[in-house]
Specification:
carbohydrate metabolism (chains A, B, C, D), homotetramer, about 230 residues, 8 strands, aldehyde-lyase activity (chains A, B, C, D), about 15% strand, L-ribulose-phosphate 4-epimerase activity (chains A, B, C, D), L-ribulose-5-phosphate 4-epimerase (chains A, B, C, D), eight-stranded mixed β-sheet
Chain lengths: ~230, ~230, ~230, ~230
């Protein structure tokens, strides 16, 4: 096999989704990329989690052509491909229909940064990318979904590793990271930040985002050269 | 036994309801029909899930007369019978009192199609059928429940396999499908779509349904001759 | 031992509370009464569920005096005693601080009958008994809690087996039944009806109770001489 | 080792946090203090719960200097240290990002005392301490967090064992107690009281706190020399 270690990592990351309560049935997928070899491994489409194995992950090139594997790749592959092309620092991507994140996507609102749980991982609000146009929906839908995300990040001038997630209007969340492991972590935090924000607004409908100083503090204590959370590596 | 394989399938489908968190106590039932033989298998009434077996499913004819079995069938059998008679494509039916779906039934509102999770399975809003009249309540109540559902679908011109579920006002959800397995799947999606819709309106009280183009896209990518989700059969 | 079978039943019923998710820590208790012998068995106070056994249940007389047992009975015993005295048909009582029921108690509102899940078990709204006065709080508090419940049922002319539960303002739910088993069942339904009612009002803030004909139908199909739900006994 | 028994207790208390559903990933920490020896044991920073052991707890002095241990202590240690210095009766401290408590912290509101579940443990509203200033955020952040809590308790004249918890604006909950075990208990109650208060306001947006007499009754039946809940020690 071409990339047995990549298959193994992607398999494991996919199996974490149901453990974290992020998926029902087959509604989620994780991919990772080997940038040197130009190969992506991704979950096959519509296969139950209990039937997944490192061997049935699908390996494609950066244009989404199957290089190794008998099954169809996740139908969201073209979205992953667009993101890998546009965001060269990204090594892993997660898509789910997790309940709380979908609710913000359906509501069409950014998830505001209301506290340090959010700020420790996402540097500011988690954007809700615009709805696709009818032309985009009827064209290469999954590819256009990726393009809409990229457009949103470009328009807002966001660093995709500082805000490593998004919801797409009417659809649901995508999260990513330097590898598939951090992508899953970020997907879990996105869901929890979404839940906390919903509760927060119920308790105080006129609440404001946290001050910029707090966003800076919490993001930078976990990221970058002055990070001091956790153990020295 | 007349239909051992049907009993087995209906037993298994019933056991999936508590696994998916759709029932408390005995508040749910699944049936399936063998159209060729004209026989329905359904859960017995008020029997705990841990005591169910393929053998104690109740087999009836299309008028609801017991053909094989010592126990009373689910008291909702007459609703199932009406639906099987009116919807010839339907092979399995589920009724539960799952929390989120019941909330919409009690609120007396259709569940709007706010996103692709809903649109992948249900082609448009999930209708809330009207309340029964006093006469209907005091008459053949469970049979009238079925008739009210059929009336609602006729009035709206809905295809029962495109919108394979409903809530009945003041009562709760019914879902169905080409077989008992897809009926259970649809009942799970109905519950999740109901939950997501409640959250969505809490976050954005003036949210609108998704555009028609998105409904078309998502429903048709999973259903019909141009479906491309999952593996080729 | 005086009533080994009663101890066993009460022990088992207490153990069902955490299984149904109705209690945290030691916040709940079940009792049952042997009317012929005039003896009550109840959970000991503040003992963890994993340390309960039939042997450490506390047996008291109808005035709440310990007849058998080394431990203090639940501090809520005087409430149970008042209810047993006032409601001679009642054989078992449950008190918990289950989340959804407490929320209605804290909100100071009856739980409206919004649907058949509620109506199958409770014949109409589940009352919220008034808050205790300062004198009652500073007097025999737990006994006065029982009296307030009895006063509420008398004032409203309610049959305690038709509406086999209540919430006490600022406090939480009590449920009961002909025996401890039905009392636990009713406590679970009370909690679920409370949850469904909260969701229902979120979806439709101006929703009304179900019509009387539906209350009659659902209550009477499960209770009384014309009941037809379940298996013939 | 200096304080093997303290390490053991702190380890066990940390392991209770995920069991009670209060933490995701590594987002929580418990410490305890041996007042005689002037030593604190606390969870190491960013270490997964399944890798914790009594041996990898970090032991520090009352200025937060590591006395024994190879790992970095929780980054929240300076908050714990401030609280131990200011509240001499406190023997254990818990910090989490539990969802419901965080929501009140993010909403910037005290958790009102709406019922006896709250009143049994917390003597009145659970305060939301003010947001840190930009100077405090950019200074010794975690130490300042402790100071803000202490300031809040001083300003309100609160007894830290009568109200053994707080939320810090935009951040989350801290709870404490005479030892680490009661601190965990209080953190669980804080979370449940927060959940109940959210639900209560959804059901009745104009609800008021319970009367003072009820606060007195419930707190004092479990605390102080006239307590009568539970078994005599």
């Amino acid at each position: 096999m071409l990339v047995p270690e990549l298959r193994e990592r992607v398999y494991k990351a996919n199996m974490e989704l149901p453990e974290h309560g992020l998926v029902k049935f087959t509604w989620g997928n994780v991919s990772a990329i080997d940038r040197e070899k130009g190969l992506i491994a991704i979950k096959p489409s519509g296969v139950a989690y209990e039937k997944l194995s490192p061997e049935n992950m699908v390996v494609t090139d950066l244009d989404g052509n199957i290089v190794e594997g008998d099954l169809n790749p996740s139908s969201d592959l073209p979205t992953h491909v667009e993101l890998y092309k546009a965001f060269p620092e990204v090594g892993g991507i997660v898509h789910t229909h997790s309940t709380e994140s979908v609710a913000w996507a359906q509501a069409g609102r950014d998830i505001p940064c209301y506290g340090t749980t959010h700020a420790d991982t996402f540097y500011g609000a988690i954007p809700c990318a615009r709805a696709l146009t009818t032309e985009e929906i009827n064209g290469e839908y999954e590819k256009e979904t990726g393009k809409v995300i990229i457009e949103e990040f470009a328009k807002r001038g966001l660093d995709p590793l500082a805000v490593a997630g998004v919801t797409v209007r009417n659809h649901g969340p995508f999260a990513w990271g330097k590898d598939e492991k951090s992508a899953v972590y970020n997907a879990v935090v996105l869901e929890e930040a979404a839940r906390m924000a919903r509760y927060t607004e119920a308790i105080n409908p006129t609440v404001a985002e946290v001050p910029q100083a707090l966003k800076d503090k919490h993001y930078l204590r976990k990221h970058g050269k002055n990070a001091y959370y956790g153990q020295k590596k």
